[in-house]
Structure formats: structure tokens, C-alpha cells
Amino acid sequence: MKRKITLLALFIIGFSTIYSCKNDKEIHFISDAKIRQEVHEDYLKRKEIAAPRNNELFELGKLTTEEQEALEFLYAYMPLSDLGDYDGNFFLNQVRYSFKARDYFTWGKTIPEDIFRHFVLVYRVNNENLDSGRMVFFEELKDRVKDMSMYDAALEVNHWCHEKVTYRPSDGRTSAPLATIRTGFGRCGEESTFTVTAMRSVGIPARQCYTPRWAHTDNNHAWVEVWVDGQWYYLGACEPDAELNMGWFDIPATRTMMVHSNAYGKYHGKEEVNYQTDLFSTVNMLPNYTENKKIEITVVDGENNPIADATVKFKLYNHAEFFTIATQHTNNEGKARLTTGYGDLLIWAFKDGYYAYDQIKVREQDGLTLTIDPANQKHHDYSVDYDMNPPAAKAVTSKATKEKIELTDKRKQYEDSLRNAYLATFMTEEQARSIKNDNLTSDQIWAIIKKSEGNYAEVIKLMNLFAEKNEALLLNEFFASMSDKDHRDGNAAILQQHVTLFDPANYPKEVYLKGIISPRIANEGIRPWRNYLADKMPNVLNNDITPAAVMDWIENNIIVDEDGNYHNCPVTPRGVFELRRADQRSIDIFFVAACRSLNIPSYKDLATGQLYAYENGEWNKYPIREEQVKGAVGTLVLTYKGDMETAPKYGYQYTIAKEENGDFKTFEYRYDEEMSSFPVTLELEPGYYLLTLGNRYFDGDVLSRLEFFNIAAYQTVTKDVTPRPLEPRDMNYGSIDMNYQLDLNGTQKNISDLTNGKALIVCFIDPSREPTTHLLRDIGEYKQQFDKWGGNMLFVIPSEKETSSFNPQKWNLPKTATIFVDQESAWMNNIFKSTNQLEFKDNYPAVYIIEPNGKVIFKSEGYRIGTGELLYKSLK
Fold first, then answer.
1. Helix H segments across 471-524?
2. Best label site of 43, 86, 103, 830, fewest CB within 10 Å?
3. What is the distance between the alpha carbons of residues 834 and 819, in angstroms, rounded to a whole number?
4. How many Å apart are CA 283 and CA 288, to the nearest integer?
5. Do 710 and 379 meet the contact criterion of CB atoms below 8 Å apart?
6. What is the tens place of the pLDDT at every residue in 531-567?
7. What are the DSSP E strand ranges found in 778-834?
């Protein structure tokens, strides 16, 4: 039985603790009495949920009225991860420093209450681990920007961010701001989380913006908007430009179908709200970036009656699946509306396990009607093809002067040198090999230290704690079980309590490595749970130490709350135990953590989401369902008979999904290399499945196919994953002057000298920008194929974009690759003139394939994923 606390009792508790120090001269944080009362009532509801952690969260002593009301606002809309894993003093410190910034800077007094509430006070940006970045950044930045205008301060903070951090891809877990600084790099989600935190630390309202998926290429992107003098401006996080409302993503953003941001609490701004809950609002900011249209979806039943409260998902083709970029629920008239771009979407509506779907071409249609008719819905095998088109790119103008752009570029080069000087302080190979540890070889120590980068001191601490030889201590395997990011932000004290000893009397070594040794379970940050749960769980289980007992306790004591943890940052296993409420993902992690803490091997299959525990000499699925028959699985065989050098990749040309309650959930096999080694054999539960195939033209158009099929127990189903073939397109890009001379390493050569009878690949790049990073990585993935082809590849850096931080050696480029600095962009401008390109607008990279006769047969400009594959296919 779960203990209930009445609202009246909570009101009394809340009144006595939160309102204990009011006086006649109180200053309200929320001046509007109606909003203040709404927040207070929401706070009381949230406090009831957090009652198991009442002391840790709410017993804070004497507070000012402003502090009390600000804390109430934070608590009222706080995700479960924060209620479960942090203490009240942490949030109070966040409140006090937000007020400190407001009072210290002149612009603090100009910020409207609601803007300050939602975009300065709030401590969380995304799904990062929380830290004291706000306080550290305030102290470092306050004197640097104090005497500036708000506009110039926003630019300056971004320059400071660039001094500390630059772009590099990493996994989907978001590092905390201080951990990002320690490493010196982050993916766009980490750069923007870091930059938003820095902006808020000096009282500049900021929010992270996302295009959840691009329409013209795979992947997504995040950047930052700042509120300055009454207006929202955008900027590239850690990518300073001469003015606000500038960024390399200017033009790509005109092709997107959605740009959104999550606003903490009940937001009442001017923007359209895509999705509203009692805890947060998803704000639609697409009109800030491109042309748009509001479409209307009508959902009816078999007799044409409107269906209310149906879920409508607006899906965009990306990474070989139709990804949901927005979710709405139909009103009483069966209607849902969304403002989106002028491209194509797949609209998916479902209710009570039944669904309907269709394509909408927003250029041509204002809406569509979907009919959900249970009487006619059958799970049969069939396929459907859709040609998907993204919005066309639009021109973007900038008010920045040439002089200011040149000054900014020079300044960024200096900032690169500051960051490079810091990176040079990381431990060297020689220093690493001098570390003595009897459980690790010298090679292993260097490999681990190299991964840790700026976090090497914490890793060395851990090594030193376990330096003496112990045959049962598999220390190298322990480090191997961690992700690269865990090496870069792991804490020695936390990691120490996850180090265990292997006893072969308990289970085989491979079971220990799969189900015990790792401090992580999914993609969560590593937190201290093993010792805590080892102490707590035996008591609540009455010493019934079995996986079934753990699962039974979870089902009887933990409340599943999918809406309450909206930032998708998992509640830690300890937080789940204390709060007794979490989302299903966090509960799954808790199950595995609880088992491991009790020395029961356990893991979660990250592709299918299935939980496993080792018992009686075998891995068993949990939870055990009544209809589950041991061994009653089906087999899916995926085949491909084409050119293996361009074999389809999971997550790029194909995906598999399983139907669940009217929608299809995609399996996360993207990082499984075996998924491109055909034939692929998968054992899957009986059910209804979807194979999505896609092939993308270099202009962004996609030929897609949806194949629906059943898998029955003991049945083998074979599916070919060959995508629809791209039809040749006769594109006329013009020709270039093959007698144009380049100075390559002191030797004058005509362009024709570089062809050797083969086509020439030319890539104009800006090494400081994220799109170039993606291009270099994409080409590196096809190094073997390009080496076999044997033609030349020229990477051209305009002299004004040259930077000391660029190291081509780390990119695994083809052996024929040459780096060339184009003085004052002379050759690039010559090519633009030859191909009749009137404007370029810094839309790097610009990539060409030039035949020996000078004809341009391929052209790609700006941000695009998969260019390496497109180039190689265009050469064949």
C-alpha cells in the first residue's frame, strides 16, 4: 500500500515551512497574484509527489519571500529526475545566483518577470547532469561583460564559450557544463546546454533550440536563442559570429519542418505551443526561421464521426525512420493543427490501439483526414512507397559588415589558441606510461588515460585506489565497460564503489562481464547506487534475493509516471528507490541496478528494450508475462544481394520497428556493426513489424518504402533491405577552367594535372564549423572505397578560415587527400563564377565532383550527413 498525504496536510506543512518569514515589506518574485496562486497550488501537488524526500528538498530554513516563491516555481514543475536526485540547497543556490546576476547587471532590471522565470531562473537546459556551472560562470564572466550593452554581452559570452569548447561528435548523453569545459569539446546539444547555462549565469535569458530532425539530411541540430532588449535572437553555441542572428545553420534552418524549445512550467508567451502539459510547454519557433503553414488534421471513425483525444504524430523521414517532430491530441471536433514548413510529412493518428496514416505534401495541401476504423484494420503484410521532399532552401541576409566578420574570424583564431593551450596540458603518453598499476599493462593505462582527456586526474585517482595486484579485479574490463564519455566525466569516488571482484564460483566470466561489472546500464550518467541498493534492497525484499522478487517489489511499490520526467534524464536508481515514482526507462535501469547490487547478473538490451537477469544458469526475460512461452520467438532474416561496398546501413537506409498500442517503436540497432553483415538474423517476439527503407538524393529528396509484416512464433520471415534505386538526374552545374593554376606545396599545377584521367573531388571547408566536421567524418568512413577508386581529393581552406586548431591527421582521410589554402578565396570565387553561382553566404562545405573535361557532375553545399557515401556512389 502506498502512503497518501492529504492536500490539506500538505498545505499546512507548506505554509509553515515555505511561508514562515513573510513581513509587511515583502517583495514578490511573482507579482501577479493569480499566477502566484496557480504556482503555489501546483507546488503543493508536486510536493505531495516528492513527500518521501521532504527533508532533503524542502527543509531549508529561513528564506526571503522572493526566494520562497522562486523555489515554489521550480518545485512546481520540476522533473522527477531532479526531485529524486538533488537536494533543496542545490536549488536554493541556483535561485540566489539568478537573483545575484539580475541585480549585478544593468539589463537585469529590464527583463520581464515571465521571461526571467522561464529563461534565467531555470537551472536545467536538457538532460544533462546538474552541476554548479551557473555559479562558476558568473564569477568568471561578471567583470568581463559588466559594462557592456546586453547585445554585446551576449556576443561576448559566446566568445568566452568558444574559448572553452568546440564541436566534436559524441554519444547522446549530455555532459554537465563543467564536464564539457573539462573536456574542451561537445556535440551541438552539449555546446548549446553549456552556452545557455553561461548566458543565464549573467542574467541573459536564453533557451536551447532544436530542429528535432532535419528534412534535407539525416541528423538534427541544436543552437541557442537569447532575449536581448525585448527581442529573441539566435546564435550558434560556442560558434561566435560578428552579430546575433547569424550562424552556419542560417540556410539549413530555412529547410527545416520544425524548430522548438521546451519551456519550464506553464508558458504564456507569444509563440505557438505545440504541446502543453502541467509541467512544461513545447514552444514552436519555426516562424523565426522560415516560411511556414498551419495544417489541419482531422481524425474520424468508420462512420465519419470525429474522434476526440486521438494522438496525432507528425513524422519526418530521417535516419531511415519516420521520426516524430511534434505530437498533438485531437479536440472534440477530431482536429489537430500544427505550424510547419513547406515539405512532406507522414501523419500518424492512433487511439485505443488502432491507427491510420497518410502522407501530406504541405506545399500542396492544407490538411488531410484520417479514418481510424477498427472494423477494417487488419494486420496483414503489405508495402507502400512515399516520395518525400524537403522544403527548398531560402536566401538569408546578414547585417554584419565585412570588417566586423574579418575581425571576428581573427578573434576566433586567437580563441582557438587559448583552447589548444589548455588541451596541451592533458597527460601525455610518456606521463601515462609512468603510472604503476599491477592490474593494468602500460598499453592499457595509456589507452584509458587517452580516453579520459581533461578528466585524467579522476581516472588516475581510481587507478591508484586499485594499484595492488588482485586476480579477481578485472580493472581493464571495468574501464572497457564504460563509454568514452564516462572516461571524460567520471568521478573517482563514484566509480570506486562500482568496482567489484569476480568470483568464478558464482557464474561464468562472460556473464559477469555482461551483467555485473559495468557501472552503467543504458546511456545514463554514472551515479552512486550499488552500495546504497545493496544495503536497502534485502530488507524490502525480505531477503528473497531473486529477479522475480525485485520485479514484484517494483510493480507493487514504484509508480510509473511517464509525464513527470519530461526532460528524459533518467532518475537514478537511488532516486527511484527514495521517490518511489519514475518513468519506465528509469524503472528499467533501476531493475538492472537492483539486481547487480544483489550480485544477480542483469542487463537491458538497448536495441529492443528487453530486460534480462541471469538465473539457474541462463538469461531470462523480465518481466515475465503470462502469454510469454519460453523459446516462442520468431526469426527475421535480412538479406541484401547488391554491392557490399555500399551495403545498406541500419539507421541510414533501413530500420525495424514493432507495433505497440497503435504506433511503431524503432529498434536501436544503429551502432551494431553486424547489422550491415548480410544476411542478418534476428530473434524477435511474435508481433506486427515495420521495415522502413529509404534512399536519399543529394538534394534531400527521399525515396522511401514502408513494409508491414507479421512474425509468428517459430516462424522465419525473410526481408530484402535493398532500398528503392535512385534514378539518374541530369543536373547541369556548368564547367570550370581546368587550366587554372594552384600553388600546391610550392609547385604550380593546373587543375587538369590533378585528375590523372579520373574525376577530381574538391571540398571547400571551414574547419571551425560543425558541418565541416561531419563532412570529414563521412569521407573518413569511406576511406577504403576512395583509396580503391584512386582519384585525387582536394580539401580547400579559404585563407580567412584557416585555423591552427585544424588537424587533418585525425580524420582518417583517403591517401590521395591534399590540404590547400586558397588565398583570399581566389579559386573558390573562380569556380563560383564559372558555375554561375551568384551567392555563397558562407554555406560551407561546398563539395564538387569535376570530370577531367571540367564538367561539374556533383555539387553539394552546406550541412549534410552522408556526403561521403553520396560522393562514392556518384563516382561509380
1. 475-480, 484-489, 492-496, 509-515
2. 103
3. 22
4. 12
5. yes
6. 999 999 999 999 999 999 999 999 999 999 999 999 8
7. 793-798, 817-822
CB atoms within 10 A of CB 833: 13
**The total number of residues written for the chain in this structure:** 876
Percent of residues in the chain assigned helix, strand, coil, to nearest 5: 35, 25, 40
Alpha carbons 101 and 141: distance in angstroms, whole number: 11
| C-alpha distance from residue 631 to each of 619, 627, 715, 845 (Å) | 12, 12, 12, 52
Q: Which pLDDT belongs to residue 747?
A: 85
Give the C-alpha separation, 448 to 451, whole Å: 5
Q: How many other C-beta atoms can be found within 10 angstroms of the C-beta atom of residue 493?
A: 12
Q: Residue for cell digits 496536510?
A: 9
- 52 contacts 579 by C-beta, under 8 angstroms: yes
> Residue 653 contacts by C-beta under 8 Å, 6 or more apart in sequence?
320, 693, 694, 695, 721, 723
pLDDT at position 11: 38
Helical H segments across 470-612, by residue range: 475-480, 484-489, 492-496, 509-515, 530-540, 547-557, 573-579, 584-597
State the pairing for strand pair 702-711/618-622.
unpaired
Half-sphere exposure of 670 (CA within 13 A, CB side): 12
Q: Which of 731, 647, 762, 649 is nearest to 218 (CA)?
A: 649
> Contact, 101 vs 108, CB < 8 A?
yes
End-to-end CA distance of the chain: 67
Angle between the 547-557 and 530-540 helix axes, to the nearest 10 degrees?
Answer: 80
- Closest of 667, 682, 675 to residue 715, by C-alpha: 682
Distances (CA, A) of 768 to 171, 186, 234, 379, 415: 20, 13, 19, 50, 11
Mean pLDDT, residues 608-614 taken together: 95
Per DSSP, the chain holds a count of helices (H) and strands (E) of: 28, 35
- Cell (9 digits) for 305: 464521426
Confidence label for 861 from pLDDT (cuts 50, 70 and 90): confident
How far is Cα 223 from Cα 244, in angstroms, rounded to an integer?
12
Q: Which residue from 820, 809, 795 is spatially nearest to 744, judged by alpha carbons?
A: 820
Distance in angstroms (rounded) separating the CA atoms of residues 165 and 161? 6
3-class secondary structure, 694: strand
Do residues 498 and 526 make contact, with C-beta atoms less than 8 angstroms apart? yes
Nearest to 794 by CA among 724, 842, 742: 742
Q: Are 571 and 612 in contact (CB under 8 A)?
A: no
Between CA 203 and CA 105 the distance in angstroms is 7
Average pLDDT, the chain: 93
Identify the burial level of 616 via C-beta atoms within 10 angstroms of its C-beta, where 0-12 means exposed, 13-18 middle and 19 or more buried: exposed
Q: Are 234 and 148 in contact (CB under 8 A)?
A: no
**Average pLDDT rounded to a whole number, residues 86-111:** 98
Instruction: Evaluate whether 522 touches 606 at the Cβ level (below 8 Å).
Output: yes
CA atoms within 13 A on the CB side of 287: 12
In degrees, rounded to 5, the angle at the alpha carbon of residue 428 between the alpha carbons of residues 424 and 430 is 150
Sheet with 611-615, strands from edge to edge, namely 602-604, 611-615, 618-622
- Tell me the pTM: 0.92
Q: Could you give the CA distance from residue 864 to residue 871 in angstroms, rounded to a whole number?
A: 12
User: How confident is the model over 780-839, as pLDDT tens digits?
Assistant: 999 999 999 999 999 999 998 888 778 888 889 999 999 999 998 999 988 888 887 766
Q: Establish whether the linkage from the previous residue to 205 is cis, with ω within 30° of 0.
A: no
Measured CA to CA in angstroms, residue 583 lies from 561, 573, 586 at distances of: 5, 12, 5
pLDDT of residue 536: 98
